[in-house]
């Protein structure tokens, strides 16, 4: 992974947010300048698209998926439509493998 | 799951541990690694392996932090320093996949115009675990490692390119280096001492080879013409040879070589006498021809020079 533009993302179950970290060259996590971005109520699973440009979070209480653009820096920002409604209590998400 | 598919990890939220397994490449069956579990925080849930496969992260919900690990070549986890970073009720973890190829830098190699037909390049990638492909001139890229050496290149312009592919299979743009090979031609520049002193029984020859180191072999022969009307007249022309000699000449240097007559002492004396008489009285001078063959980098060269022997 090139040192620039990477990211590790952690869903914060009780905080309705996603914490975002940069990964240093030796693999340590360092909080990005904006540590947390909002998610829905009780975010659980998270996935990043294979092209690294989109990220998705399931919000179990909301029955929604929050969707984000991933900037070149790896920072998350909500897409124009920040959430889509899914079934009750979504709790897992997978990315389409390969590209 | 590690990106290389060889290791699998399971968070055990009741045990506060992570179990680590080898994945059988044939049937996918899991078997516990040498150290079957490593410690995590309180109530570990999510786990992710970094895009380079060298780090792993575990979200510990109850202790409210993220554990970070190094992933060894055998897939086993060991805690990094620091072992944890703060969380905010962390649950699951995802990492952004690596979609960027590594940048390759050539740190050493020929440039401009060089005299050597050989070239060696040292290069590196900004991503650890990269593999490299090299290309010379219009050839195809083929796998290589640093340093990459080439030998016996033709005179003229050449180009070298090297590109890196990272752990995730992203290939970056090639780094390029152009240079020109101009192998200097060896040359001998023979200077025969026209004032060769016969009493010294030897000829002085200066040898130089221009821009390259060379080995020079010298041979020589000569004739003393028939002389008339002198006290020590030779009844007929006499031929003589010089002793062959070899010399190593450094680039840019001139070596002085002394060539001796290839005769016994008595005949040398006679030759000297004849030279003296002939040179003074008859103007028919003894002549010698010295031939040199130089061998150096890039080829060989020969030179020949006549010299008149006189007092």
Descriptive account of the structure:
- The complex is a heterodimer of chains A (99) and B (311).
- Chain A has one domain (8-85).
- Chain A is globular, with a radius of gyration of 13 Å.
- With 99 residues, chain A is mainly β.
- Chain A has strands at residues 8-12, 17-23, 29-38, 43-48, 54-59, 64-70, 76-85.
- Chain A is 0% helix and 52% strand.
- In chain A, the strands form two sheets. A four-stranded antiparallel β-sheet of chain A has the order 4-5-6-7, with no helix packed on it. A three-stranded antiparallel β-sheet of chain A has the order 1-2-3, with no helix packed on it.
- With 311 residues, chain B is mainly β.
- Chain B folds into three domains: 7-86; 104-181, Immunoglobulins (Immunoglobulin-like, Sandwich), CATH 2.60.40; 191-309, Sandwich (Immunoglobulin-like).
- Chain B is built from one helix and 23 strands.
- In chain B, a hairpin with a 5-residue loop joins strand 6 (65-71) and strand 7 (77-86).
- The N and C termini of chain B lie far apart (95 Å).
- The interface between A and B is large, with 38 and 37 residues.
